[in-house]
Amino acid sequence: MHARRLLIGAVPLVLVVTACGGNDASTTTSDSGKKLDRVTLTLNWYPYGEHAPFYYGKQQKIFEKHGIDLDVRAGQGSQKTVQATAAGQTDFGWADTPALLAGVDQGVKVKSLGVFLQTTPASVQSFDAKGIAAPADLKGRTIAGTAGDALSKTFPIFLKKNGIGESDVKVQNTDPAGKIAAVISGKTDGLLGYASDQGPTMQDKAKKPVSYLRFSEHGLNFYSNGLLAGQKILAAKPELARRMVQAVSEAWAAAAKEPGPAVAAMEGASEQLPPKTVLSEQFATTLTLLHTEATEGKAPGVNTEADWQQTIDVFAEAGMVASPKAVADYWDTKTALKG
């Protein structure tokens, strides 16, 4: 399914092919005669329910209101989106914060403009019949995971926080696309995935209810997906970056108020688009992830330095950030939304 795989260590700069980005973005004219900046946004993966606000924002002309003609492109994983954004092959990216942290750690010139999914969707997902309702229920179980990705790297921290030894749970190394099949076939008792992603698809395929053991509900939270830009575009076009952040925030707020129409706006977005029932459940779950206690009641995408620091600390402990830096090295506060 939608695997946002994050490999650790030195990585080749493999770039997704997108429309011209960075400083080469051209302009268009709206039906009303307004001059718009042509902007590309590369997602973390093929479109799924989480991405509804971007399509709804286009449909409702929210991006146009902010002077943006938005072109949404499918991605090939957060890591590649981070790299492509830094290289200027796309103007902006939508990617998982762990991938951004790891990229910056390796010298990739990219910064977050704001994390929108501030409560991690990381979870153990299993069929209700397996009876995995609490962390203690994981003892003696086999869980599908992908070696080196953010989920597998943080799972030991989750277990430790809940008094469970790593040896009490077997993590079976599974290709990202094969995790759902492993659970449905009974080869594993569950999988490590995102509650806003794999679970609804697994439930739809198997026609059996799925349970979620969310990291965030058992002592471990960290930032997930957000908007990012390369440092070149931040230096050359900070005003465009500010408009983009404002437009994305407004689109998310509008979609949260009208989830049905927001999901409907995704029609035709991709040949790989999940069924509408799956999209609706994915987006409904996504809307539970928009805030931490510190940002509750604030506009989508408003971040705090304390939440950023907590996320950096988690991934330093997980071994995914070798040389932790200051928050400002990861998050561009100059273009950030003000709380």
Summarize the structure in words.
This protein is an alpha/beta fold and 339 residues long. It has two domains: 22-119 and 223-329, Periplasmic binding protein-like II (D-Maltodextrin-Binding Protein, domain 2, 3-Layer(aba) Sandwich), CATH 3.40.190.10; 122-218, D-Maltodextrin-Binding Protein, domain 2. 34% of the residues lie in helices and 17% in strands. The protein contains twelve helices and eleven strands. It has helices at residues 52-59, 62-65, 78-87, 97-105, 150-161, 179-184, 198-206, 231-236, 238-257, 259-264, 276-286, 305-317; strands spanning 27-29, 35-42, 68-73, 92-96, 110-115, 122-127, 142-145, 170-173, 190-194, 210-214, 225-230. Strands 1, 2, 3, 4, 5 and 11 form a six-stranded mixed β-sheet that branches. Strands 8-7-9-6-10 form a five-stranded mixed β-sheet, with helices on both faces. Strand 7 (142-145), helix 5 (150-161) and strand 8 (170-173) form a beta-alpha-beta unit. Helix 1 (52-59) packs across helix 9 (238-257) and helix 7 (198-206) packs antiparallel against helix 11. The protein is globular. The two termini are 35 Å apart. Mean pLDDT is 92; it is low at 1-25. It comes from Streptomyces microflavus (Streptomyces lipmanii). This is Sulfonate ABC transporter substrate-binding protein. InterPro entries: NMT1/THI5, SsuA/THI5. Residues 50-260 form the SsuA/THI5-like domain. Residues 1-21 form the signal peptide.
